[in-house]
């Protein structure tokens, strides 16, 4: 997908350079000394582009505080999951009116306790492809297995009173192979019991934007950013691509 996106970006850059056929070519030094906004047609060479590695072009953007951040890597998520696995699931938070719980202890040396909470609708479990579940104590590998079968997976941990989200450095929601993140600065995470309001809807869709809203999360959007340096005989110009 990213390779296709880069091809599209390259096509877009060509489109921009050859657009406005009714306009004559303008030198770059004229453009850099002009006030925006203006429309120009230029003839220039591409000197450099950044970043050089395609995966580095993808960032997370908060539309509320306008911040940009790197997409956390697999190791960051794994580290947070390992940390939360040290907290045993609270038995008092299992099998409530709006979710059904399954627990077991792993047979490996660490003997982790795992709890999976399947959110119900009309007191019934939904089909796997429509189900949202919450998992405590799971590893990255176990979570990815669940995302292949169930619609939404939310990693959580137990407190004395309720289930809560992990550190927002981790994705608060996984849907298929997409990880959804929240802005640390703008989010005010709420307990998982707030999800019961969506479960009570006539047809819960489990859309990420709705889940984020009820959990007090300001959803970060994936954006594609590149910087191109264009040159002609008169000067240079930086062009930025910012695309959702």
TrEMBL record:
Molecular function, one GO term: G-rich strand telomeric DNA binding
Pfam families, alphabetized: POT1_C_insert (PF21375)
InterPro entries: POT1 (IPR028389), POT1_C_insert (IPR048953)
Superkingdom to which the source organism belongs: Eukaryota
Protection of telomeres protein 1 C-terminal insertion domain sequence ranges: 75-218
UniProt GO BP: regulation of telomere maintenance via telomerase; telomere capping
A GO term from the CC aspect: nuclear telomere cap complex
Extent of the signal sequence: none
Name of protein: POTE1 protein
Source organism per UniProt: Chloropsis hardwickii
Gene name as annotated: Pot1
